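We recall that each integer encodes one residue's backbone shape. We quote one record:
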Amino acid sequence: MKTSDIRQLPDADIDVEIAKRRKKLFDYRFRAGQEEKQRAGEIRTLRREIARMKTILSERRIAARNGEGAEA
């Protein structure tokens, strides 16, 4: 998912997407423990997408906090 696509989503939807990707990441790791085919590229992609989403959420929270401080 591209950064521009993530920025268009509301916070609640981003949280849902993070949860989906964490579940998929867990499933990949679980299967790797059972010595099935490893998917290093997909695991890396999932981790980066989760980090990208969390960064955008953090940016929004900081911007909201700074916006509230300027009004007071």
